[in-house]
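User: quick one, sequence for these C-alpha cells?
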C-alpha cells in the first residue's frame, strides 16, 4: 500500500474531495461553463493555478528532441549524438499490437471519451478513497501527452522538470484545458501517434522507435504481441519494470498488459494466454551516443563538428540558443571528412606511434582553396580509459583542444619569409648568419619598439653552421640566425600582420606576442591552424577559413544554413610561389627529405623545439595540406633516448618522426587523385659549403646536421632543436620552448 504523507497529508476523505473537485471541474469544462477566479476548491489560490480562463488557449508544443546523425563527405555514418534518443515515426510505422497495448493499459476508453474520462475520474475517486492515498490516476492518454509536452519543454533543467510533473491541482487543470484543445485539433490517431513518439520507455529511449531498437533491435512496426505488451507496461515505471535489470518484474507487468488487452477485447483470451506463456526474449542494442562511438577513429573530428555548431553564430545568436538546437537534434549533418584521407591518417599514425607511447601525435589534413577539413586523428584515442583522452590535440582550447597549443619551432619560419618577400626582400637575400648573435635592438613592432635590454641571444644548432647564407639555403638548413637577422631588418609588425592574414593565433585564442623569438616558433599553435596556414601557400596566397560541415538537414528534411569558408588574399601569387619553391628545397635536399613524395610536387618544413619537447612537420601539395605534431601534451617529455612506435630514437627531429607520418598519411589520402604542380620560381642556388662533423652525420648518406638554437631550429635532417639552456628570459622573448 502506498505510504501516506506525514505531517499534514490528506486523509482518504480529503483525497476523495480533491478528486471530486477535479471531476466537477471536468464536467463544468466539458459543458463550456466559465469558472470563477476563485471557488470552494481554491483553484486560484496562490501557488496552485490561474483562473481557468486565464490559461493560454494554445498549447505550444516544442519539437521533439531526436538523435542527430553525423555523416562523412561520402554520406556514410560517423556517429549519432543526442540529448534524448528518439526517432519520430508515423502511426503506420508502429505495430498495431503496440497501439492496442498502450491504449488498453493506459486509457482503455480512449476512443470513447473526450479529453477527460468522467467514468475514469469517478473510478479513481472511489479507488483512492478506499486506499487512503493515490492508488489510481484518472489521466487520459491526451492528458498524459500534455504532461509529456511540459516535460519535453523543460529539457534537462531539473527545476522545470519538477514543475512539469508536480502533483498539484493547478497542473491538472492546465492539462485538462490543453487536452480539450488537442482533442479538437488533432483527433485520436494523431494524439496516439504523438504520445507514442514522446513517451519515455527507460534505458535512455524516448519514443517507441528508439525503445523498440533498444530492447529488441528492430523497428517499431515489427513488434509482436508480447514485445508490444512489455513496452506498454514500461510506461508506468520504466525503472521498476526494466526487463534488462529485472526480468521477473517485467514479465509480471507484461502479463498484466496482456490480460488487460483481452479484457478490452483488443485480443482474444487465447492470444493473451499464449503470449503469457512465452518468456521475454530481449535483443538489446546498447545506447550508442556521442562522439565516443564514432567510427573511422573520427571521435575528435566528431567533437570538432559539435564545437563548430555550438560556436558559430550561423546556428543561433548565442551558445545557449545553439545548444538548445543541438540538444533538440533530429539533424543530419554531412561533413567534409574524407573517408580515404581519414583512413590513411589513422593507418599512418598506427604505423609510427603506439597508443601507450610516452608521447602522442596529432595529424590534420586540409584541402587548399576550400578550407575543408579532410581528416583529423591522433594516437591517443577518444575516450576515458588508460592512454585515451577527450582533448583534441589538433584544435584550439575553445574547440576542446589543448590549453595553449604547442610551440611550432622552425615551422614558423616560412611565415617570416613570406612577410619579408611581401616587404620587397628578394629571395636571394643574404645575411651573415653567425653561429650566435644578440637579438637586434631596437626592433620595430606595430607599437612600441622592442629593445634587447637583457642582451638575449640566438644561436644555430652547431658551430659549423656559419653564413653567409641565401634564403633558399637558410630555409633548407633552417638557419636560426638568418631569420633573426631578417626579423631585425623588416621588423616584427609585418610578421604578425602576415600571420593574422593566415589565421595564425595561439592555441588559447590570443594574438601572437610581438617579440623577436616569434621568428623561431616559440609560441603554442594548434596543428589545424598550422595546416590551414600552409594551405594558403598551396593555394597561391589565398587564405580560406577552415570548415567541417557541408550541409545540414533538420527534422522533416528542411535545409539549414551552414558556415561557408571565407577566402581572402594574404599575399601575392608571386610571394606564395616563391615560398613554395623555398619549401620544396626543404624536402628535396634539406631537413625534410624523409618526408618527400616521389610521384607529386610537395613542400614543407620541419620543426623541433627546446629540449625536444615538440617535433613538427607541416607540408603540402597543391591539393592537400597537413600538419603533424609529436610530443607530450603535458610538455614534460624530452624526446631523447626514446622509443616511439617500437623504434628507438637517440634524438627526435621533425623530419625523422613527424615527417614520415605526414608522408604516409598524404600518400594514402591522395592515392588515385590528380597530381598538379606548383608554379616554380627560379631562385639561384648559393654555393653549398656545409662544414660537416662526422659525429653530426644523420645516416649512411652523410647528410649534414642542421643548426641548433633556442626557439626552434630544424637544421639537422629530421628536426629542429633549440638549445636546452637558453640564456634569455622567457618573459622577454615569449618563451624558450619554441
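Assistant:
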Amino acid at each position: 500500500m502506498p505510504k501516506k504523507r506525514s505531517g499534514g497529508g490528506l486523509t482518504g476523505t480529503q483525497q476523495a474531495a480533491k478528486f471530486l473537485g477535479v471531476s466537477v471541474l471536468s464536467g463544468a469544462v466539458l459543458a463550456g461553463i466559465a469558472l470563477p477566479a476563485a471557488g470552494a476548491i481554491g483553484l486560484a489560490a496562490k501557488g496552485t493555478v490561474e483562473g481557468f480562463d486565464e490559461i493560454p488557449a494554445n498549447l505550444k508544443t516544442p519539437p521533439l528532441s531526436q538523435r542527430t546523425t553525423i555523416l562523412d563527405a561520402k554520406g556514410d555514418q560517423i556517429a549519432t549524438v543526442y540529448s534524448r534518443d528518439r526517432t519520430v515515426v508515423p502511426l503506420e510505422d508502429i505495430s498495431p499490437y503496440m497501439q492496442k497495448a498502450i491504449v488498453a493499459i493506459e486509457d482503455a476508453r480512449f476512443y470513447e471519451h473526450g479529453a477527460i474520462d468522467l467514468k475514469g475520474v469517478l473510478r479513481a475517486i472511489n479507488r483512492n478513497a478506499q486506499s487512503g492515498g493515490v492508488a489510481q490516476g484518472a489521466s487520459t492518454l491526451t492528458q498524459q501527452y500534455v504532461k509529456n509536452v511540459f516535460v519535453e519543454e523543460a529539457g534537462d533543467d531539473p527545476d522545470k522538470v519538477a514543475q512539469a510533473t508536480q502533483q498539484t491541482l493547478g497542473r491538472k487543470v492546465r492539462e485538462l484545458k490543453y487536452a480539450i484543445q488537442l482533442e479538437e485539433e488533432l483527433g485520436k490517431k494523431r494524439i496516439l501517434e504523438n504520445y507514442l513518439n514522446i513517451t519515455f520507455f527507460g534505458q535512455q529511449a524516448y519514443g517507441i522507435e528508439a525503445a523498440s531498437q533498444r530492447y529488441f533491435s528492430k523497428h517499431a512496426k515489427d513488434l509482436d504481441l508480447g514485445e508490444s505488451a512489455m513496452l506498454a507496461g514500461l510506461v508506468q515505471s520504466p525503472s521498476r519494470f526494466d526487463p534488462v535489470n529485472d526480468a521477473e518484474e517485467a514479465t509480471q507487468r507484461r502479463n498484466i498488459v496482456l490480460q488487460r488487452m483481452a479484457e478490452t477485447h483488443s485480443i482474444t483470451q487465447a492470444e493473451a494466454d499464449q503470449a503469457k506463456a512465452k518468456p521475454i526474449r530481449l535483443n538489446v542494442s546498447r545506447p550508442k551516443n556521442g562522439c565516443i562511438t564514432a567510427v573511422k577513429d573520427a571521435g575528435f573530428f566528431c567533437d570538432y563538428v559539435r564545437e563548430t555548431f555550438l560556436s558559430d553564430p550561423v546556428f543561433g545568436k548565442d551558445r545557449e540558443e545553439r545548444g538548445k538546437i543541438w540538444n533538440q537534434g533530429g539533424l543530419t549533418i554531412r561533413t567534409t571528412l574524407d573517408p580515404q584521407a581519414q583512413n590513411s591518417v589513422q593507418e599512418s599514425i598506427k604505423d609510427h606511434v603506439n597508443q601507450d607511447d610516452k608521447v602522442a601525435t596529432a595529424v590534420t589534413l586540409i584541402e587548399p582553396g576550400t578550407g575543408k577539413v579532410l581528416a583529423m586523428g591522433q594516437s591517443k584515442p577518444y575516450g576515458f580509459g588508460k592512454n585515451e583522452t577527450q582533448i583534441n590535440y589538433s584544435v584550439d582550447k575553445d574547440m576542446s583542444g589543448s590549453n595553449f597549443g604547442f610551440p611550432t619551432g622552425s615551422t614558423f619560419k616560412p611565415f617570416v619569409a613570406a612577410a619579408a618577400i611581401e616587404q620587397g626582400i628578394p629571395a636571394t637575400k643574404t645575411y651573415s648568419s653567425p653561429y650566435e648573435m644578440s637579438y637586434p635592438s631596437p626592433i620595430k613592432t606595430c607599437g612600441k619598439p622592442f629593445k634587447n635590454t637583457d642582451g638575449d641571444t640566438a644561436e644555430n644548432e652547431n658551430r659549423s653552421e656559419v653564413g653567409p647564407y641565401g634564403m633558399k639555403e637558410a630555409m633548407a638548413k633552417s638557419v636560426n640566425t638568418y631569420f633573426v637577422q631578417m626579423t631585425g631588418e623588416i621588423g616584427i609588425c609585418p610578421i604578425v600582420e602576415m600571420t593574422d592574414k593566415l589565421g595564425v593565433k595561439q592555441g588559447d585564442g590570443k594574438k601572437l606576442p610581438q617579440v623577436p623569438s616569434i621568428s623561431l616558433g616559440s609560441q603554442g599553435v594548434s596543428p589545424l591552424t598550422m595546416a590551414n596556414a600552409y594551405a594558403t601557400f598551396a593555394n597561391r596566397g589565398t587564405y580560406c577559413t577552415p570548415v567541417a560541415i557541408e550541409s545540414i538537414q533538420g527534422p522533416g528534411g528542411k535545409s539549414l544554413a551552414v558556415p561557408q569558408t571565407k577566402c581572402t588574399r594574404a599575399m601575392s601569387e608571386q610571394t606564395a610561389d616563391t615560398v613554395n619553391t623555398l619549401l620544396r628545397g626543404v624536402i628535396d635536399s634539406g631537413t625534410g627529405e624523409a618526408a618527400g613524395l616521389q610521384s607529386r610536387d610537395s613542400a614543407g618544413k620541419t620543426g623541433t623545439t627546446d629540449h625536444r619537447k615538440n617535433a613538427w612537420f607541416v607540408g603540402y601539395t597543391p591539393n592537400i595540406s597537413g600538419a603533424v605534431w609529436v610530443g607530450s601534451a603535458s610538455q614534460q617529455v624530452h624526446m631523447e633516448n626514446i622509443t616511439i612506435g617500437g623504434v628507438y630514437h637517440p634524438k627526435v627531429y621533425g623530419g625523422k618522426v613527424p615527417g614520415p607520418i605526414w608522408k604516409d598519411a598524404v600518400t594514402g589520402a591522395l592515392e588515385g587523385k590528380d597530381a598538379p604542380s606548383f608554379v616554380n620560381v627560379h631562385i639561384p642556388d648559393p654555393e653549398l659549403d656545409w662544414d660537416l662533423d662526422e659525429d653530426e652525420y644523420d645516416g649512411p648518406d652523410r647528410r649534414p646536421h642542421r643548426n641548433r638554437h633556442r626557439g626552434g631550429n630544424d637544421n639537422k635532417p629530421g628536426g629542429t632543436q633549440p638549445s636546452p639552456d637558453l640564456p634569455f628570459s622567457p618573459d622577454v622573448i615569449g618563451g624558450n620552448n619554441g
